[in-house]
Amino acid sequence: MITSKQRAYLRGLANGIETIFHIGKGGITPELTEAFNLALEAREIVKANVLDNNLIGAREAAQMIAERTHSEVVQVIGNRFVLYRRSKKAVIELPAK
Fold it and tell me: pTM for the complete prediction?
């Protein structure tokens, strides 16, 4: 569980990264979940966009993917969301709790 201070730090980092996932009408498939797993292991923080033709909203998609990848939802704004999971080779140093 990350603190509000850590969440604010991660939100600041997320401003500078590009959206690497677009979730469309295909929804959240096992292949997409695996791609999130690989990206979280490599980057620790990922940004995704839920397209308008999807049946679920960004908040629901973020929660679903976070549960499946054992990550944490950092932020949901509009159709975009940010996930964080510490990798084995930590890249991001979070502020102390």
Answer: 0.93
